[in-house]
Amino acid sequence: MARILYLSYDGMLEPLGQSQVLAYLQQLASQHQIDLISFEKAHDWAKTDERQQLAGRIAAAGIRWHPLRYHKRPSALATAWDIFAGTALGLWLVVRHRVQIIHARSYVASVMALNIKRLTGRRFLFDMRGFWADERVDGGIWPAGSRLYRVAKGFEQRFLLAADAIVSLTHAAVREMQTFPYLQGMARRFQVIPTCTNLALFRPLPRAEARPFTVGYVGSVGVWYLFDETLACFKALQQRWPEARLLVINREDHAFIAERVAAAGIDPQRIEIKAARHDTVAQEISRMDVGLFFIKPAYSKTASAPTKLGEFLGCGVPCLANAGVGDQAEVLRRGGVGIVVEQFTPEAFAQAAAELAAKLAEPDLAQRCVAVAQAEFSLEGGVAAYDALYRELTA
Questions:
Q1: Of 37, 131, 149, 314, which cross-links 202 as Cys (Cβ 3.0–4.6 Å)?
Q2: Contact in structure between 248 and 274 (CB atoms under 8 Å)
Q3: For residue 120, which of 142, 140, 92, 139 has the smallest C-alpha distance?
Q4: What keywords is this UniProt entry annotated with (predicted)?
Q5: At what angle do helices 379-393 and 365-377 cross, to 10 degrees?
Q6: Which positions ≥6 away from 118 have C-beta within 8 Å?
Q7: CB of 2 within 8 A of CB of 100?
Q8: DSSP-assigned letter for residue 11
Q9: pLDDT digit string (tens) for 23-60?
Q10: Residue 220: half-sphere exposure toward Cβ, Cα within 13 Å
Q11: CA gyration radius for the chain?
């Protein structure tokens, strides 16, 4: 049994914290002693009933939860204060509970972990979750070459050099990091663990027999998602399937979606836009014949593993997606569970529609999708990988 301090700058009261932190830790806690520090946002903390229910779940799993308050403004000073508070609490827990491994999720938490490692010599697991600094530039938040970017990349270098093991979401990111000049000639312990999916929830469900051909889109339409290109591809699919409908599952961007549909010249009667709770999304995916999504193929996306890919495949639904994003093109091609678009042109979309028609005619396609999801994205597989890594670092 390893003694772990897990640091997350995301709150456990947020959906991300529950799906991408707690989902793993609740299972790992049966084998390891875990202290969890998270930073909770004020509006989430104010929901007393939800907070108490979550605290009960965490305690029942055997995890010691140490929530701290997340501070947002003024930005730099607030983050610096959070880093100080997390470092101080983490240092106390490391000494008190004789922690062996400091597991830090992403960059801000890793600053705390690096401070604690330097003071105590404990093992440091850098769970990087992507090229964060480059995401800030590619997303238009920071100017390229800005001081903030240079500082963040400097910290990234320190994390990679100091970490006893590094978890990456993609094999593509590992290949990229192995070209970094400062890592040349150094043996680094990399472990690829993609964004995993709860396949007990995202599983094939009964499908209605009489229904129109349905293209599905699930999730955000924001900065990283090329929604106009998605709609253009849908129009190409309508050329092959004139009765095709687009089902969009999205929480809060319905007005923007309707606006872009109108701008694309698509009949609004062919589009259904609705919100769905996380635990009902699989039911909506069961209405779909193919999942369609395009993500901006920026440099930082080399290290991204879209959650929706595992969710579609787990439900037995093939995907039509683009290259240049993590390992998704490799997964779709190797498993034969989807179509990959290299360019966002009418010709490429028409070709994709033809390839999709042939793909959908394959009799074992749904079963193959589920098998690929189990092999690549299962939560159990992710938990087993973390468990093995913990044991290796404390051997």
A1: 314
A2: yes
A3: 92
A4: Glycosyltransferase, Transferase
A5: 20
A6: none
A7: yes
A8: -
A9: 999 999 999 999 999 999 999 999 999 999 999 999 99
A10: 8
A11: 22
| CATH 3.40.50.2000 is the classification of domain 214-377 | yes
Closest of 8, 83, 14 to residue 42, by C-alpha = 14
User: Are the C-beta atoms of 126 and 173 separated by less than 8 Å?
Assistant: no
Alpha carbon distance 356, 345 (integer Å): 16
d(CA 285, CA 289): 8
Per CATH, 3-196+378-393 and 214-377 having the same topology is answered yes
- Residues 235-291 have pLDDT tens digits of 999 999 999 999 999 988 999 999 999 999 999 999 999 999 888 999 999 999 999
Of 224, 221, 234, the residue nearest 349 (C-alpha): 234
Whole-prediction pTM value?
Answer: 0.92
Domain extent listing, the chain:
3-196+378-393, 214-377
Q: Which fold has domain 3-196+378-393?
A: Rossmann fold (3.40.50)
Residue for token pair 């809060």: 252
